[in-house]
Amino acid sequence: MSYLRRCGVLAGMLCVALVQGIGHAAAPTREITDDAGRRVTIPENVMRVADPWHANNAMVLMLGGAAKLVATTYQAKSQPWLRRLYPPIAAIPAAFNASGDVNIETLVGARPDVILMAYDGSLPRWFAAIDSAYHIPVVLMPNTSLDGLKTTALLTGEVLGSKELGVAREFVRYFDANIQRVMQVTGKLAPDARPKVLHTSSAGILTADGRQTVIDDWINIAGGVNAASVAGNGRPVTMEQVAAWNPDVIIVGSAPNPQNRQAILDDPRWREINAVKNAKVFVNPSGAYLWDRHSAEAALQVLWAAKLLHPAEFADLDVGKETKAFYARFFHYQLSDAELASILNSTPP
Amino acid sequence: MSAPLIEVRGAGFSYGEQAVFSGVDLEVYSGEVLTILGPNGCGKSTLLRCIGGGLALDQGAVRFENIDLSALDARARARKIALLFQDHTPSFPFPVLDVVSMGRTPYLSAFGAPSAQDMHIAEEALEQVGMSHVKKRPYTELSGGERQLVLLARTLAQQPAVILLDEPTAHLDFKNQVRSLQQIGALAERGVTMVMTTHDPNQAFLFPGRAALMRPGGSLSVGPPSEVITNESLSAAYGIAVAVLSIERRDSGELKFCTPWYNWPRSQ
Amino acid sequence: MIKPRIVALMILLPLATLYVSLFIGRFAVHPGEVAHILLGQFVPIPRDWPASVETIVLQIRLPRAILAMFVGAGLAVSGAAYQGMFRNPLVSTDILGVTAASGFGAAVALLLSKNAIALQIIAFAFGLAGVGLTYLLARVYRSTPVLMLVLSGVVVAAFFSALLSGAKYVADPESKLPAITYWLLGSLNAASVNSLKMALPPIIAGSIGLLCMRWMINVLSLGDEEARSLGVRTEWLKGGIIVCTTLITAAAVSVCGIVGWVGLVIPHVGRMLVGPDHRALLPASLSIGATYLLCIDDIARTASASEIPLGILTAMIGAPFFAVLLRKTRGSWQ
To answer: What is the pTM of this model?
Structure first.
């Protein structure tokens, strides 16, 4: 190449670099503090959000950030009610598979401005790659308690934008109001008036959800006591152990299937358990996400559980009415009676 | 001569494309010890296994007392023909007597086990080869030679019409070779019919019966050892210079033996 | 053949362990109560025990204990038969791929949210299919040489293991993935009268079949060609052994997941007690295997509130034991 042409090419490259640099430097940013105490720098206007946390996808939708969701999980996409409330989710790519691993190309191809993630003390394998190699900011949010759920709502709202933050604040106020309403009654209950509650999901093996979980929290708020003396979610337990605990109420988590309730009622090994003898075996409702886990509908869960455990004290509480009101106010969706029934019975719409 | 016990006609066998032998004709008469010799690779072990029914011939047939061997099922065959294998790897430390009693398997039903009568036969067989003193020991503890005799007892327990021995002295030391051959000789004296392959031409001279010299490709010359085993035939078969000499023994007549005929370096 | 003392031990020990298993556990039951409850099934006596205790003993513990005994016995006798057939002390029941295939079947059933009965059937069917595949792969000129069987088993097991990994990959991590993972570690958690009715017939049938072939396994252990020269129809015999052990192992895996080290270690214990003759070894393996797994299951369900998977316990005990055995025998059979 001639000397002149070389100079020209060099100059052209310098110009491009300059423009790129200017372009980058021009985007305004802000800083937020996430639940792990990290200060994360995110764009002033977040337009593209990736959410590998199944439960939080419903939260993003509820706060109004549906249009900003660019990468989600396979499980969130297959939640039947989420598809009903927000049909476009079917077109959003699932960059995160069921066990939380990420397809880097899909994720980076979606060009998210920020990633929202659940944080229980340990980071997934791909965190370092995303953080250091691709420089996509990650905001960590708590996932082990109901209080943490409120923090999650506020953080998610903060990330998404001021309008969404407003909705988040409204949601937290509503949540707190529900908890207050319930605690007014259950807070005064004597210890022996609190029924023992076993929450199980039983996908092929017998499991119980124990202490230090969201489930433990709402059981306590609703005026019960967790029958399972184990710690953590989904701990395998023996039939004998359940018989020793002898719960008064059994709540079957809707994942993986509500048929477990019928199986429990039919199984001779469960016959002598208090809950079975008194026909107090129930399926947990599920809507945009499972009510009993970190869903936004945990606000409804405390009402439902309280009414279940103490029907006399909450005779004036109409869970159906409250659910319709919630869906109208936060999901902007009018539930028919049939749809309401399917949510409360945890069947697909 | 009476009718042969075993008749082999036009036998041929190949491993895939490779022909091992073809066009083999052979008879085995009751009461004789037929020794099959030949260089390595001429197919004598393969031929023996074909006669025993362990391998199927590609051409020709083996007839046993005028019945085609392939028409017999494994149990019927095992009651008539017993095999002493060259390479036997012991696995479990079964007691010696149990190993010998396995020779009674052809007489057991599909789910059976040896009866008291079977154990008695096994004990007798062990006695015949002179190994009764080890009957309770685990047979993996025996030396190579002792194990050979135990396996020989097992073939006797089968009460066959013919015993086929595949190079019975191949892995034995000198003393055990002689012991083995003495046992075989004792059996021959009692009139047990045997077919033996060997790489040592001398063994053909030890027992009453014919010798068969096999050449690569399968051509056999069969006849009395003194006729079949000569300087010329051995030199041609093995491709080395061999001399067949004879020694006069005062009490048992002429004893022939073969030796390579070279000028070895002499010790001074 | 075997000393009468040892025979008595082989019969009494499993029964005694069964009785003990009925009153130990996290739910306190008195030994006397157990005796009364059992007696009350056959003889009309006044029922002075609470209904909940009867449910615990008869509906929860008894089926589980019986299942543990039959699974332990079945796996042990299968391992002994295979070690004889393959003439190798390191052989276990998994060698032809039944465990990997069955495990995959169970994972599929869990993914499809099937109930316990369907899961058992699907896992059992996959186990049989896996071994069938191995057998077909190993056919060479109308025979199935031992080496081909082993290699085909490795291939088929690897194949189903890969499929299993795939199943775990698509499983929902909140519920199905932990269920699959836990199931694979082995547990008698789901034992009930129903699972007994499904698992016991194949295990009993397979065990009886193997017992019938005990002497022939002795002869088979000489090697294919020698056995054939003694009149044994080796292909039928090997096929029969494979069918029986597969029935047993597939049934065991379908009902309690993957419990390893039983088929590998118990036959060696049996050989130390009664010698290598399979006429004694197979019955001894039944008895020792039953007692062993019953004890392990008692620990699994009693040691902590959260159940310890069986597979972990059998590995933690079996592997060191086998290491000691290896050192003592220096690799030979004695």
So the answer is: 0.82
